[in-house]
Amino acid sequence: MINIQKSKRSMKSNFNYDDFVFGVQPTDHILLCNYKDGSWQSPSIMPYADIKMSPMSLCLHYGQTVFEGMKAFRQDNGQVIIFRPDKHFRRFNASLERMCMPAVEQDLFIEGIKELVRLEEHWLPEEQEINLYIRPFMIATEPRLGVKVSDEYLFCIVCTPMGLYYSEPVRLKVETEFVRAAEGGVGYAKCGGNYGAAFYPAQQAKIQGYDQVIWTDAKTHEYIEEAGTMNIAIVIDDRLITPKLSTSILDGVTRSSIIQIAKDLGMIVEERKVQLQELIDEFQSGKKIEIFGVGTAAVISPVKCINILGTEYYPYTANDATMFKLKKQLNDIRKGRSSDKYNWNWFI
Amino acid sequence: MINIQKSKRSMKSNFNYDDFVFGVQPTDHILLCNYKDGSWQSPSIMPYADIKMSPMSLCLHYGQTVFEGMKAFRQDNGQVIIFRPDKHFRRFNASLERMCMPAVEQDLFIEGIKELVRLEEHWLPEEQEINLYIRPFMIATEPRLGVKVSDEYLFCIVCTPMGLYYSEPVRLKVETEFVRAAEGGVGYAKCGGNYGAAFYPAQQAKIQGYDQVIWTDAKTHEYIEEAGTMNIAIVIDDRLITPKLSTSILDGVTRSSIIQIAKDLGMIVEERKVQLQELIDEFQSGKKIEIFGVGTAAVISPVKCINILGTEYYPYTANDATMFKLKKQLNDIRKGRSSDKYNWNWFI
Ligand SMILES: Cc1ncc(COP(=O)(O)O)c(C=O)c1O
Ligand SMILES: Cc1ncc(COP(=O)(O)O)c(C=O)c1O
């Protein structure tokens, strides 16, 4: 049972849906649940507010933090769904295990999200293309300066409205010097440290005129892994090609959904290593190639220019590109316009 | 100018010097300094207390955190010194740069530490082997759920008493599956993410009967890099051998000090790649080999057993081992018993 204390008034009245920056405005409530003495205490949903923390909290020093990110949508008929919370739940626990943090129960995670979204669904307007971004996260809270696994944790869920993410086609640079994640490391976990570590390489790419980097494997820098904080996929003819999962690649929920949709559309899906040289060869052969990022935020982010080892190539991004069909189909499922064969939509 | 607000009474009266766990008891004050609108605000030293934080603070989500760790000692004549704060300062800023965080001025960092240690030096007893562990750290505080470099930061310094760290000889396992850091990554930075990521491999090693792991390079797993959260060094005859610095190895202050001391003692110092096969060959030749971790906490941590690719070898750890001479000399310098040729001691 979640103890609920409702906020007296909604911050929504001061929120401008027509002009806002993503991630700044929390909704009215936060779910909080403490872990101590080896077990989870009872969760509560409270009015959104700052939290008090010891300056010695382990999460501030040793990066013992894990998060998730998913979305809730209002369907055309008015009903609100959460997209694949079960898959996010499993990934959350996989991340937690790698970071030596205690698992959460499916009940706490999914019922917590549902309960919170029920309270916040009024933030989802009927007329506008706004969805709710849901951020469950866990931080190590034991106050202790020694390098050690924390004995205390705080699990939270917050939400924030998200507009239609217009994904302008991007210019990406294949990164062969900096590394996001190595096999045997924590790249497959959604732990905080992976993201802070990726800022500098992305900043350097910006200086060179690119929007983001495409990560390559730490061992040889010959294989592509991810695109910034998205998975990466390629379409050539009727094939969808995407790097095979490994300990250095995040198991994206959008990636998995797009793979399923591509199969349903009759495409051949190849999950395997993707070599830079293969891409170069395909481009040089004059083939029509689509390259795109896949992730919760933008769903699909078309790549219009890719710098591979110093040479720029130009993937196909016209309106009839296959990636947009995949995106539309995913969107149709979520909005209730297309049949939800795989039970991806969880009604609140 | 640091604004100082003294605590009304010291927590020291309730502190048991004869029986305490490292890192739990803060001293009475904390230094706090906020960064916003592109510049550092004025620092203050306040009574130690919890801090208020937005649940959306970027540090809780994307691991934009950096820390340092150094020590203050009471010398035999009663004077208090801080050991090489200038070198810790440079490393702090190097870490910050890699994490896209704003540099701090030497004045804020070193004067902040000195001022704080002046207030806390009464925590250093005359009679006991207690020193003060000093923890400067910086966290990203902008409340924002988007993956971005923070525009706001909090720089803090806290202290905690530290007892004589009895470093029992340890059993270490050479890790060839899990990875702490890759070249091109953030291993050389003291960012939080590196530490949380290392918990799981260390836990697995414990299950297998070892105290910690020895990290190898992410590319080939053929070269040793560090020992847990310490640098690693080897003594064979009159040679001190230690892995050469790279982007995957932390530039340890103790490592650098021990190298200097070894040179002063007439040893040959080799900073270079150290291959596992080389160690195996040396052990198999029957040579006397010393292996030890080097770091601020224990200074030197003797290795009594090392598992290399499944075989255990037994380095030399008797009382006459060279590593103890190096440790004693470092300690003598800090305590004022030996001349401080390199100005490592900063009086408060
Ligand atoms: C590193 C990384 N890769 C890929 C993804 C895409 O995963 P998902 O589709 O589950 O959002 C994310 C998260 O959005 C990510 O942070
Ligand atoms: C990963 C790592 N290596 C090495 C060291 C040793 O560095 P120092 O001698 O500056 O304490 C530390 C910190 O103590 C560390 O965290």
From TrEMBL, chains A, B:
<dbReference type="InterPro" id="IPR036038">
    <property type="entry name" value="Aminotransferase-like"/>
</dbReference>
<dbReference type="GO" id="GO:0052655">
    <property type="term" value="F:L-valine-2-oxoglutarate transaminase activity"/>
</dbReference>
<dbReference type="GO" id="GO:0009097">
    <property type="term" value="P:isoleucine biosynthetic process"/>
</dbReference>
<feature type="modified residue" description="N6-(pyridoxal phosphate)lysine">
    <location>
        <position position="190"/>
    </location>
</feature>
<keyword id="KW-0100">Branched-chain amino acid biosynthesis</keyword>
<keyword id="KW-0028">Amino-acid biosynthesis</keyword>
<comment type="pathway">
    <text>Amino-acid biosynthesis; L-valine biosynthesis; L-valine from pyruvate: step 4/4.</text>
</comment>
<dbReference type="InterPro" id="IPR005786">
    <property type="entry name" value="B_amino_transII"/>
</dbReference>
<comment type="function">
    <text>Acts on leucine, isoleucine and valine.</text>
</comment>
<dbReference type="GO" id="GO:0009099">
    <property type="term" value="P:L-valine biosynthetic process"/>
</dbReference>
<dbReference type="InterPro" id="IPR043131">
    <property type="entry name" value="BCAT-like_N"/>
</dbReference>
<dbReference type="Pfam" id="PF01063">
    <property type="entry name" value="Aminotran_4"/>
</dbReference>
<keyword id="KW-0032">Aminotransferase</keyword>
<dbReference type="InterPro" id="IPR001544">
    <property type="entry name" value="Aminotrans_IV"/>
</dbReference>
<protein>
    <recommendedName>
        <fullName>branched-chain-amino-acid transaminase</fullName>
        <ecNumber>2.6.1.42</ecNumber>
    </recommendedName>
</protein>
<dbReference type="GO" id="GO:0009098">
    <property type="term" value="P:L-leucine biosynthetic process"/>
</dbReference>
<keyword id="KW-0808">Transferase</keyword>
<dbReference type="InterPro" id="IPR043132">
    <property type="entry name" value="BCAT-like_C"/>
</dbReference>
<comment type="pathway">
    <text>Amino-acid biosynthesis; L-isoleucine biosynthesis; L-isoleucine from 2-oxobutanoate: step 4/4.</text>
</comment>
<dbReference type="GO" id="GO:0052656">
    <property type="term" value="F:L-isoleucine-2-oxoglutarate transaminase activity"/>
</dbReference>
<dbReference type="GO" id="GO:0052654">
    <property type="term" value="F:L-leucine-2-oxoglutarate transaminase activity"/>
</dbReference>
<keyword id="KW-0663">Pyridoxal phosphate</keyword>
<comment type="similarity">
    <text>Belongs to the class-IV pyridoxal-phosphate-dependent aminotransferase family.</text>
</comment>
<dbReference type="InterPro" id="IPR033939">
    <property type="entry name" value="BCAT_family"/>
</dbReference>
